[in-house]
Design brief:
Belongs to the glycosyl hydrolase 5 (cellulase A) family. By secondary structure, the chain is α/β, with parallel strands linked by helices. Helices cover 29% and strands 14% of the residues. The chain binds 2-acetamido-2-deoxy-beta-D-glucopyranose (7 copies).
């Protein structure tokens, strides 16, 4: 028993055998914006959520929001990556997190840093690769672990939080991705946090190339995630792989036309997940607002639902500062607010109801029980 559905205490006795879509929602990007401008001004350069938009999505049946934040803002360069946080930025982030989780939503804390730290100005390519021992300016694996120990400790009692430990590592040895991922997992568990951890891979964590080498530069040893990340261990077995997918000609999500063969490009990774008893979340996917793209996105979500191994998805993207960005589904103002949401995403979400709104975030297969006290706290009510 790992999953509790609001209003159905009887469901406490029901255990899950097959993965289902436990988490569905959107990214609310913005906390990482204007990354060339540090620290930047809240509400101008960066902002996490518009509360009205969050209400819209949660009232519409979604239950998950992925919240990007910038490491160089939460750990300023003056003090470096580690356990010393900028309390102002942390409070801005925590205010958004608490708003969403107090309404029963799940929040994926997304460290939006491409496994790099110290110069986000030209993301995704600038900055030292974390743990690169031949770069004297690079933050270490231990620094990264110390950061996650501190952040997870601060959310230890918020069962609706999910740890998205790193956005889109790329162009680095896959062995170093493994080393950093494992150190973050160990640090979070050592801190006592039990929530779901999302584990990224190399190659911008692309689901479509999970079984392939991912670097142009072969000397970097970008071995397939499928070969290297099978070494990941979690003492609580409460992790899922974190994957992204875009549908344009270079899978970058920067073109309106959908020309890749989705979801068939996910079939290899789906089989790998099934054969190895893993679960995964598609935490970024987005496509233009046209019939070909709608079909690709719709068929991809159907594939996730039928796979038995994908436990969630969050669309890219909502967010308060996007303006007329072509992928924005921010209510009222986003170009896709009146198309992708009602025509493609909402029909799927309607079929998931009621979605889990309370209970420890879980991979749907691992063995984490929320203790009685934790569950009662989360419900705000005494169990019979
Ligand atoms: C939030 O969204 C509402 C509704 O779309 C809009 O009226 C309001 O201006 C937005 N607030 C901020 C701070 O962006
Ligand atoms: C901490 O963050 C706040 C809000 O962004 C900013 O005003 C302040 O300058 C930051 N402090 C440091 C040391 O970066
Ligand atoms: C690690 O640092 C060295 C020295 O700065 C650099 O040549 C190398 O490209 C870096 N490795 C990666 C993966 O960035
Ligand atoms: C992708 O499509 C765009 C047009 O939308 C084109 O300009 C670009 O050259 C194409 N890139 C590749 C890698 O085919
Ligand atoms: C996956 O789980 C099934 C059923 O519990 C088990 O029979 C199988 O050996 C597992 N496979 C792997 C690779 O762990
Ligand atoms: C979407 O529809 C709403 C309600 O009809 C409207 O207020 C809003 O301007 C529309 N948004 C766009 C981007 O067309
Ligand atoms: C999505 O796919 C389902 C089943 O494959 C189909 O019934 C539905 O009409 C599709 N929706 C759109 C918007 O194409």
């Amino acid at each position: 028993m790992r999953v509790f559905r609001a209003g159905a205490i009887a469901a406490l006795a029901v255990s899950q055998t097959v993965a289902e879509i436990l988490y569905a929602g959107v990214n609310s990007a913005g906390g990482e914006f204007a990354q060339q401008n540090l620290p930047g001004a809240f509400g101008v350069d960066y902002q996490f959520i518009n509360e009205t938009a969050i209400d819209f999505f949660l009232n519409g049946g979604m239950n998950t929001v992925r919240l990007p934040f910038l490491l160089e803002r939460i750990c300023p360069l003056e003090t470096g990556l580690g356990s010393t946080l900028n309390e102002t930025y942390f409070t801005e982030l925590a205010t958004a997190v608490n708003y969403i989780t107090s309404k029963g939503g799940y929040v994926i804390l997304d460290s939006h840093n491409y496994m790099r730290y110290n110069d986000p100005s030209m993301q995704p390519f600038s900055g030292s690769v974390i743990g690169n021992s031949s770069d004297p300016k690079a933050a270490t694996t231990e620094d990264l672990a110390a950061f996650w120990a501190e952040l997870s400790r601060r959310f230890i009692v918020n069962t609706n939080v999910i740890f998205g430990i790193m956005n889109e590592p790329h162009d680095m040895p896959t062995a170093l991705v493994l080393q950093n991922d494992q150190a973050m997992i160990n640090a979070i568990r050592a801190a006592g946090a039990q929530q779901l951890i999302l584990v990224p891979g190399n190659g911008f964590t692309g689901g479509h190339r999970w079984l392939e080498n991912t670097c142009q530069d072969e000397s970097l040893e970008c071995l397939p995630n499928s070969e290297v990340l099978s070494a990941i261990t979690d003492p609580l077995d409460n992790f899922a792989f974190d994957m992204h997918l875009y549908f344009d000609n270079d899978t970058s999500g920067t073109h309106e036309e959908c020309t890749t063969k989705a979801p068939s490009n996910l079939f290899p990774v789906t089989t790998w997940l099934q054969e190895n008893n893993y679960t995964a979340i598609l935490s970024e996917f987005g496509a233009g607002a046209n019939p070909t793209c709608f079909e690709s996105v719709n068929d991809t979500i159907t594939h996730l639902e039928e796979s038995g191994v994908f436990i969630g998805w969050t669309y890219w993207s909502a967010g308060p500062l996007w303006g007329d960005y072509f992928l924005s589904i921010e209510p009222d103002e986003g170009p896709q607010a009146n198309s992708t949401w009602p025509e493609v995403l909402e029909p799927h979400v309607k079929r998931y109801q009621p979605m889990m709104k309370c209970g420890l975030s879980t991979n749907g297969k691992g063995g984490v029980d929320l203790d009685r006290k934790g569950l009662e706290g989360c419900l705000g009510a005494k169990l019979p």
